[in-house]
Structure formats: C-alpha cells, structure tokens
Amino acid sequence: MVKPKVQVENLRLSYGPKEVIHGISFDIEPNEILGIIGPAQSGKTSLLRCINRTIEFTANARPSGVIRVDGVDVMDMRNVYELRRRIGMVAPLPVGLPLSIYDNVAFAPRAAGMKRKSELDTLVEKCLTQAALWDEVKDRLDSLGTKLSGGQQQRLTIARALSHSPEILCLDEFSIAIDPVTTMRIEDVLKVLKKEMTIILVTNLVQQARRLAARTMFLWNGEIIELGPTEQLFGDKPKDKRTYDYVNGIFG
Amino acid sequence: MNRPADTNISPTFGETQFTRKKQRQEFTAKCFFGGMAALMVIPLILIVGHVITQGWHSLSWDFLTTNPRMGGVKGGIWSVIVGTLYIVGISLCVSAPIGVLAAVYLNEYAKETWFTRIVNLAVVNLAGVPSIVHGLFGVGAFVYAAGMGKSIVAASLTLAIMTLPVIIASTKEALSSVPMQFREACWNVGASRWQTIRRIVLPNSISGILTGVILQVSRAAGETAPVMITGVAIYKAVEGTGLFLYDPFREQCMALSMHLYYIATQAHNAPKSLPFAIATVMIVLVLFVNLTAIVFRSWLRSRRKW
User: Does residue A216 sit within a domain?
Assistant: First the structure.
C-alpha cells in the first residue's frame, strides 16, 4: 500500500453562513491523475484553494477538517510559502503577470531566492518547453506576457506553475481558454509530467477526465457523489445514477 | 428568398428613418457634451489671462529673486517663494510616506475588522474637514501641546495632517485598480504579500499614487487659513537671497498664499499690479507642479504593462 500524497479528511468549508463543502474525505495517490468533474458551484475551485491554503486570502472563508500533504497537516505548516511552492496551481482564466515572458516564469524561483542567471535561463527554457510554448516565444522572451494571445497566456500560466518544481499540480479547468489542438498538446505534456508529479485535474470537459485520469471524482453541491476508477464512472454502470446522467449529458 | 414584409428592416443596409434618427441623436449628444467641456475652459482662460495682464507690470527677474522690503510693498518675493517651498516640502516629506504606507496596509494587508472600518471611516471624514479646522488642530497640537511654537514645522505638520487623508484615499484607489487575479497568481506560486506588492502591485500603481500625492502638493501650496495661524508671518525681514533663509524649527516664514492675502487686502500703499503679480507666480508654480505630475504620469503609464 503506497502512502497517499494528499489526504483529505472530513473537509468542510463555509463562506460566511453558507457551507459550500459538506465534509468530504478522499485520498490522492502519488503520481496519479485525479480527475474532478462536476457542475459550477459544486466546490471544485474552493477545494483546490483549501489544499494550497490560498483560501486564507478570502476574508469570510472558514475551512475545517484536515488536509495532509505527505502526511503533514497543511494547517500545521509554518512555512506556507513552501507549501504553495510544492503545489502548482493553474487558474481557469489565463493570468499573464504584467512582466516579460521570461520574468513571468522566473517570478517564483526568484521569490524563492534563486538568483543565478544561468540557472534561471535553464529553468525558464525547461518550463516553457514543458508547457508547449517555448518554440513560439523563444525569440521574444523580453516582450510582455500580457500581450500574448489567450491560449499562449494559459500555457505561460502553466509554465509558471511548473517553475517552482511542484510535487502536486492542480489544473482548474485549464482548457476553457485554449483551442482544442493546444489542449491536446498540453494533455500529452500532462501524461509525461505524471511520472514526476501528482496531478489534480478539475475539468468541465468530462471527456478530458476520461482521456487522462486514472480515477475520477464527481463532486456535486459540495459532496462527493462518486469516486472511483474512471472506467467505472464513464461506463454503463456507475454506482450512482446521477453520475451516469451527468457524464452522459442528461443531467437534471 | 422570402423576407417578411416589414419595412423597418432594411434589406440593403441603406439609410432608413431610424438610422437617421440615431445619427441625429448622436450628433446632438456630442455637441451638448462637447459644449459643456468647452465651458470649463472659458473661466480658466479668463481668470489666468486677467491675472497675468494685470500683474505684468510688477513681474521681472528682480521681483522673483530679491527679498521684500518695507512690509512687502517694495522689493521682490524671493523669501516668500522660499518659505512656500519650505512649508510644502516638509509637509510632503511627512504626509507622502505615511499616507502611502498606510494605504498599502489598508488595501493589501488589513482584513475587514472593526479597526480597519474605523480607520477607513476616519480617512473619509477627515478628507472632508475644512482646512481652518485642521489649522485649529495644528495650533492646539503642534504650536502649544508639542511646544513647537509658531514655526515652519508646525505649519508643515498641519498641512501634512490636512493632506494625509486625501493621499491615503487616492493611493488606495490606485492600489485597488491593480487586478486581484495578479495577486492571486503570485500567492499561488509561493510569493509572500510583500513580494507581491513590491514586484507587481506597486510598479503597476505607482503612476496613480504619484498623481494623488502631487495634486496634494499644489493644494497645500495654495492653503492660507491653516498656515497663517500655525507658522506663517505677515512680514519677516530676511537677509541674503540663498535657499537657506529660515530655520524651520525656530522661525516663522513668509508664504505666497498669505503674502497675497496681506498685500491684496491690508497693504494700502502697494502698487495695484503687485497682488496680481504674486497671484501669477502662485498659478505658475501650481501649474508647474501639475505639469510635472502629468508628464511623469504619462511616462510611467507608457511603461505600464497590461
């Protein structure tokens, strides 16, 4: 039995008086791709923000329960920046920081104290290559990240998430702003990255979860409806009728 | 192809009575708004033009660079200009750093608690307090309680207190114009709040911050009431024409706003063009400061990156 990479135990989250996650528990194995599917407002993004503790920046958010990364409760971690560096986060909409393409990728390593130009150069090239963007921007690394097209900016965001060598990569509906061809290229990249890291893939495209994830979780209204091998959820006989309806587009 | 027999929909993208009506509306609106904008310019030209033509006789290089004599009626206004620079300069050195740092705290660090709510309320309300009330506070706090006496620092600190809330408000405005998603992106990769502020938030809001600060400089330079009761003298004989005419901790000084008030209303034997000349110098000084702000801002804007 492998030790789980992330353990979530009885996680509850409320914004003010409204509870949005109602006590969910699950494990994520190391080096797996866990797909999370579910309609809007079901708590997918909030769940990710609890894992890297950026939920703390939302004033009225009250999480409770335990999240362990490598067996350590994230709430006990004194160095929250180190925790966030171990978790790469890609938001649904691309965010190119108002810096050059190079500085966008070098931002995190610099914030962590890396200074040497040669190290940074290597790292920037490696991350941009992994994010399938290097060939398009290698001649203009000094131009602004915000001037790139939406799809390119999203790949830049992925490169930035990879720049601090995370052990866990959270992708929050990464493909809604990019074209299908690029999406396929990034999906290929993810299959390779799986060897190095654990990937949490939140997606609205149920077929994307089917293509990539070994296990898939169906989250609905802050509760896990079903979590199991992807074939089970997408097959003819998922455990819950609602899963079948959602996956096959006959929900509601 | 069968189109519905509706004459309102033009099949050829041609002109109909509806497009003509729309164009007429557009034209009227444009003229109306444009006229209002033009109306704003007229008083400016009239006032500035009047002041400059009336004061032209007294303006000369000597007028600017010699000290006033005989109660300010004769001589120039050099020590008056220097006094204004002292007061405004010192007040800026106090209010700008405190104001900007307080705004960074309120906008970037503070969670919404009863404490920050009180601070924000105080900022908004202090910004609306009349300047003479700030002056009276300055008399009580700096001149008497702090034992500064009527002096340049007392007047400067009074002006600093007066401009502080507006600087805080405008700086907060500039900071909050930086999109939240930039901050979140930085936090996600393990940057601390300070790293985020230094690398992303400040560089992208600095033009707005400086604009707010510089506008307060010109406001401070024009104030009469708060400085006349805290540290500005009606007439003060000074020697020499250097920049270091005053000792800011012990002495009072002269200031343009006060000098103008005195010459225009109290000194009966002054030449008629003298107050206009002083007013011209004030206007030019304020315009110069604002112009610097505009040039600086457009330079910083051109470097802004989104």
Answer: yes
| CB-based burial label for B20 (10 Å; 0-12, 13-18, 19+) | exposed
CA distance B142 to B14: 74
Alpha carbons within 13 angstroms on the beta-carbon side of residue B249 total 2
The tokens describing B266, both together, are: 């109290």
Out of B111, B195, B200, closest to residue A97 by CB: B200
Q: Do A111 and B112 touch (CB under 8 A)?
A: no
Nearest residue to A176 via CA among A57, A54, A44: A44
The single-letter DSSP state of residue A202 is: E
Which segments in chain B show pLDDT lower than 50?
A: 1
Host domain of residue B30: 24-57
Q: Which long-range contacts (CB under 8 A, 24 or more apart) does B130-139 make?
A: B131/B162, B131/B223, B131/B225, B131/B226, B132/B225, B132/B226, B134/B158, B134/B161, B134/B162, B134/B226, B135/B225, B135/B226, B135/B227, B135/B228, B135/B229, B135/B230, B136/B229, B137/B161, B138/B226, B138/B229, B138/B230, B139/B229, B139/B230
Amino acid at the residue A83: L
**Do residues B243 and B79 touch, judged by C-beta distance below 8 A?**
no
Interface of B with A in 146-205 (CB under 8 A): 181-192, 195, 199-200, 203-204
Judgement on whether residues B29 and B104 belong to the same structural domain of the protein: no
Residues B216, B160, single domain; the answer is yes
Q: State both tokens at B28.
A: 């009227």
Cα separation, A113 vs B26, in Å, equals: 57
Q: What pLDDT is recorded for position B1?
A: 47
**Which residues span the domain enclosing A40?**
6-246
Instruction: Return the beta strands (E) in chain A as ranges.
Output: 6-15, 18-28, 33-37, 61-69, 72-73, 87-90, 168-172, 198-202, 215-220, 223-229
**pLDDT lower than 70: segments of chain A:** 1, 251-252
pLDDT digits (tens, 9 = 90+) for A170-228: 998 888 878 888 888 888 888 888 888 999 999 888 888 888 898 999 998 888 988 98
* Location of structure tokens 């769940």: A47
Is A53 a member of any domain? yes
| Interface-testing mutation among A46, A48, A84, A85, with chain B (most B C-beta atoms within 10 A) | A84
Q: Is A228 helix (H, G, I), strand (E, B) or coil?
A: strand
The long-range contacts involving B191-196, CB below 8 angstroms and separated by at least 24 positions, are: B191/A81, B191/A107, B191/A108, B191/A111, B192/A81, B192/A111, B193/B108, B193/B109, B195/A111
Total domains in chain B come to: 2
Q: What's the pLDDT at B162?
A: 93
Q: Do B306 and A57 touch (CB under 8 A)?
A: no
Note the pLDDT of residue B6.
Answer: 52
Q: Which residues pair with A89 in a beta bridge?
A: A170
Is B143 inside a domain boundary? yes
- Which residues of chain B have a CB within 8 Å of the CB of A162? none
Contact predicate B82/B253, CB 8 Å:
yes
